[in-house]
Design a protein that fits this description.
Keywords: Hydrolase, Thiamine biosynthesis
Bound molecules: the ligand Cc1ncc(C[n+]2csc(CCO)c2C)c(N)n1
CATH topology: Heme Oxygenase, Chain A
Helix content: over 70%
Family: Belongs to the TenA family.
CATH architecture: Up-down Bundle
Number of domains: 1
Number of helices: 10
EC number: 3.5.99.2
Number of strands: 0
Function: Catalyzes an amino-pyrimidine hydrolysis reaction at the C5' of the pyrimidine moiety of thiamine compounds, a reaction that is part of a thiamine salvage pathway.
Radius of gyration: 19 Å
Largest sheet: none
Organism: Alicyclobacillus sacchari
CATH class: Mainly Alpha
Distance between the termini: 59 Å
Order of helices and strands: HHHHHHHHHH
CATH superfamily: Heme oxygenase-like
């Protein structure tokens, strides 16, 4: 079995849970709360900058000229592209130009995901870096294609641009090139290195799920308190 197929099988429940999540269901049905859309885009803009740095690290670690060029192109596309997917969400949320680009605090899940990617990029080899960045690509292509198949969105679907961006053949080709790379690296790796690649991949999968959940529900670093200072959802420590 291809290593990438093994990875996909291991992550199947996470892909299914993500598709069932209200954020993705909202994309499919064309309806999401404004604050979820804004939170998603704000956190994702920050995420993409970090993701681009990790691509650059993959470029530096690449084992062939062909792979170096591949990552060179990815860095370029990411610096120019992706934001068009955000544009769609911001238009639906009716975010004004002057509201954009505001400094926002990194929420815990974004922070966790970035730290994971940067740690793998800083301390691991090419194979593990590919494994860690794979879910970002795979999950979006897989879920966008499933939603497009199911909903058959027309141009007037609120999220048709977002969906066609991730369901496009270019996006799928770019994913397929990553899958070939991860399979090649896994074939050269020993058991321990393959286990590390699998762990890096799974952690990114979980964090992809959590990222949508963070956008949908909101997150805070400190526990939420009620008006009288008690911890919300917990027992009042003062009685
Ligand atoms: C948290 C998060 N995860 C994945 C993506 C999707 N994505 C980001 S970069 C990239 C590669 C091609 O540009 C893809 C598919 C996202 N936007 N945000």
């Amino acid at each position: 079995m291809r290593f990438s197929t093994e990875l996909y099988e291991a992550s199947r429940p996470i892909f299914a849970a993500t598709l069932a999540h209200p954020f993705l269901q909202g994309i499919a049905q064309g309806e999401l709360p404004r604050d979820a859309l804004v939170r998603y885009v704000q956190q994702d803009e920050l995420y993409l900058t970090t993701y681009c740095r990790v691509y650059a690290k993959a470029l530096a670690c690449a084992d062939t000229d062909e792979h170096m060029r591949d990552f060179y192109d990815r860095v370029g596309l990411l610096l120019e592209g992706e934001h068009e997917a955000h544009e769609n969400l911001l238009q639906v949320a009716a975010v004004r130009p002057d509201e954009r680009g505001a400094m926002v605090e990194k929420l815990p899940t974004l922070h966790h995901y970035e730290s994971h990617l940067l740690a793998v990029a800083a301390t691991s080899d090419f194979g593990a870096i590919i494994a860690a960045i794979l879910p970002c690509h795979w999950l979006y292509v897989d879920l966008a294609r499933r939603i497009v198949d199911e909903v058959q969105p027309t141009a007037d679907h609120p999220f048709s641009a977002w969906l066609s961006f991730y369901a496009s053949d270019d996006m799928k080709d770019s994913l397929d090139r990553l899958l070939v790379m991860v399979d090649k690296r896994a074939a050269l790796a020993n058991t321990e290195a393959r286990a590390f690649m699998r762990a890096a991949y799974m952690e990114s999968c979980y964090l992809e799920y959590r990222f949508f959940d963070m956008a949908y529900r909101g997150e805070s670093w400190l526990p939420q308190t009620t008006a009288n200072g008690a911890l919300a959802g917990g027992r009042d420590r003062h009685v």
